[in-house]
Specification:
- By secondary structure, the chain is an alpha+beta fold.
- Among the domains are: 94 residues, OB fold (Dihydrolipoamide Acetyltransferase, E2P), CATH 2.40.50; 172 residues, Bira Bifunctional Protein, Domain 2 (BirA Bifunctional Protein, domain 2); 132 residues, Gyrase A, domain 2 (2-Layer Sandwich), CATH 3.30.1360.
- It contains 18 helices and 23 strands.
- The longest helix has 23 residues.
- It is globular.
- It starts with 24 loop residues before the first strand and ends in a 9-residue tail after the last helix.
Length: 625
């Protein structure tokens, strides 16, 4: 029954034909999306990546094709030869872009059959994600997935074109390189030629792109593959793609300007007008206003409500007056039952030394003036759900809770972080009520159906913000050492250099993050370009000259050969596409992702290797009993 392609050549893609093509002879090829048998007439919906065309097999006009049509089933691969004709008015399908036409077939070739798939690509939603990932080649045929990867291509192309137009050169950096720890665990690759030695897969092209600046390339970028051996979550994969760039002689504002230009271009390719410039906020202010360093601006932030309470009120409510007292509101939630309120309790992180109050009926009864004042300060309407988060005096003070000069203490940060996390969780829970996230869904849907030449306003759905003035170091209680909060090649503010050893907590880093809708999209910094400063940073981290040379020797050597001031950033391409696609996780926009347990279900990886392979690599596996 199966036919060969022979000299048949495809003339059109299935989703491209319109009423203006009526009368044309065409050859279409693709998968049978659906089959309907009406006796002498068989209708096949033929699908490829551009869409669907209806094929009509008439027993009188095409008897051989009609006979084959009786045998084909969904997902058979076929070629149809015929003439484009207009459908009758009562047969027009307004839901299909090709709904005004159909193909009157004169020949049908069955190029391949199929096993019965565990699900049909015509299904809009498949609940079992493991089955989808196991049969990824079937899953990727679905219209939603095809749309996601067409979107990814268009965004990437627009960003590449934008950066090229700004004078950046795309240069590849090594995949097999030296292990230079950057915060996460490296993936190690054993060397066959050098027994007992290992390459590492790059967590980022960080050192190499800095060396490209030393090499005089001035403006570099790369759509870079990166690898980190860390626990997975919805917005994290073991291997991912970054838009990586570096510039010579920049100020921070130059980096911001470049990023805003290519982000605007990438969003425009998805049909969304992303307003620029992006707002900015300092790290400390972001914690105070949103309780996080990746704020979601689609919802109201945290508000200081200390003034709503007297000291006596706080004592009765068992609130620590020395710590922040903040409130936030989730709009349009309405009246909640007692059970609904109690169900919210497990979502709050009680381990952070914070406590929350949301029972305004009790608060209004015992402290009516405070209750009114809190809602007033929070700007709450009658239907808004208001939460108060404050410090718990029962939380014991630890040595690490010391307040550092000019910065928030750990206990203060914990209160803000608890409020910020609770705000995010409640926003997700009541998303269908408050509507802020629904705007995104509507805009995303419109972005996929509108012409990119007529972009829609994305100012409500996509809310970017720059974060600046991060601490240079963070204290690791487990080791008792100061660690780089970003990476050890980040330049400190020049004004803070004198405090590197005497007061490391007060040192600010000239680094910056870009966040959007509660996600960190990217991180960057102005780099250290002088070896003496780099050695000072290593010394402040307790890294000896010998250890520094062992870990970063080739880079330190390069710094001695006329290194220009330079800086850059890397943004997660997968996360950008995930936002614009309206996807729930990165697996929807990565062709062959891993599960949460770091398994490729389709390729059955990771897996064991043969003894011969291990022998060639001079390795032996010693499993714990």
């Amino acid at each position: 029954m199966l036919d060969f392609l022979g000299n048949l050549e495809r003339t059109h893609l299935c989703g491209t034909l319109r009423a203006s093509d009526a009368g044309k002879q065409v050859v279409l090829m693709g998968w049978v999306n659906r089959r309907r048998d009406h006796g002498n007439l068989i209708f096949l919906d033929l699908r490829d990546r551009t869409g669907i065309s209806q094929i009509v097999l008439d027993a009188e006009l095409c008897p051989e094709g009609h006979e084959k049509g009786e045998q084909v089933r969904p997902e058979y691969v076929v070629a149809a030869v015929g003439k484009v004709r207009l459908r009758d008015n009562d047969a027009i399908n307004p839901k299909m872009e090709t709904g005004e036409i159909e193909i009157e077939a004169t020949e049908l070739r069955v190029l391949n059959d199929t096993k019965l798939a565990p699900f049909s690509p015509s299904e809009e939603a498949i609940q079992n994600e493991e089955v989808r990932l196991k049969y990824r080649y079937v899953d990727l045929r679905r219209a939603e997935m095809q749309r996601n990867f067409r979107l990814r291509h268009e965004i990437t192309l627009a960003i590449r074109d934008c950066l090229s137009g700004l004078g950046f050169l795309e240069i590849e950096t090594p995949i097999l390189c030296k292990s230079t720890p950057e915060g996460a665990r490296d993936f190690l690759v054993p060397s066959r030629v050098h027994p007992g030695e290992f390459y590492a897969l790059p967590q980022s092209p960080q050192i190499f792109k800095q060396i490209l600046m030393i090499s005089g390339f001035d403006r570099y970028f790369q759509v870079a593959r990166c690898f980190r051996d860390e626990d997975l979550r919805a917005d994290r994969q073991l291997e991912f793609t970054q838009i990586d760039l570096e510039m010579s002689f920049p100020r921070r504002e130059n980096v911001f300007d470049v990023v805003e230009k290519f982000m605007h271009a990438g969003f425009a390719a998805a049909g969304v007008d992303l307003p620029v410039p992006f707002p900015r906020i300092s790290y400390d202010e972001s914690l105070k206003q949103y309780g996080t360093d990746k704020p979601d601006l689609r919802l109201p932030g945290l508000v200081d409500v200390r003034s709503a309470f007297t000291d006596e009120n706080l004592a009765v409510l068992q609130i620590d007056p020395a710590l922040p007292i903040v409130a936030f509101r989730i709009p349009n939630v309405g009246e909640l039952s007692r059970k609904e309120r109690e169900d919210n309790h497990p979502m709050f992180d009680l381990k952070k030394g914070a406590k929350f109050i949301d029972d305004f009926k009790r608060l209004a009864k015992g402290f009516p003036e405070s209750a009114v004042k809190v809602r007033e300060l929070a700007g709450a309407a009658e239907a808004d759900f208001v939460i108060i988060v404050a410090g718990d005096p029962a939380h014991h003070i630890k040595a690490s809770d010391t307040k550092f000069p000019g910065r928030l203490s750990e206990r203060e940060i914990n209160v803000y972080a608890a409020a910020g996390n609770f705000r995010s969780e409640l926003a997700k829970k009541y998303a269908d009520r408050h509507g802020a996230f629904k705007v995104t869904e509507e805009v995303v849907e419109a972005a996929h159906t509108r012409d990119a030449k007529d972009p829609i306003d994305g100012s409500l759905a996509f809310r970017p913000i720059w974060l600046t003035d991060f601490p240079m170091f963070e204290f690791d209680v487990a080791t008792g050492k100061w660690m780089p909060a970003h990476h050890p090649f980040t330049a400190p503010y020049e004004a803070d250099m004198a405090n590197l050893v005497s007061d490391p907590a007060s040192v600010r880093a000239d680094c910056y993050d870009l966040a959007m809708n509660g996600l960190e999209l990217g991180s960057g910094s102005i780099r250290i370009h002088r070896k003496d400063v780099q050695k000072q940073i290593f010394a402040s981290l307790g890294i000896s000259d010998e250890e520094a040379h062992q870990r970063f020797g080739f880079f330190l050597d390069a710094l001695e050969y006329g290194t220009p001031p330079h800086g850059g950033i890397a943004l997660g391409l997968d996360r950008i596409v995930m936002l614009l696609a309206g996807a729930a996780n990165l697996r929807e926009v990565i062709a062959f992702p891993k599960t949460a347990k770091a398994i490729d279900l389709m390729a059955d990886a990771p897996t064991g290797v043969t003894e011969q392979q291990l022998k060639e690599l001079h390795l032996r596996i010693a499993l714990k009993s």
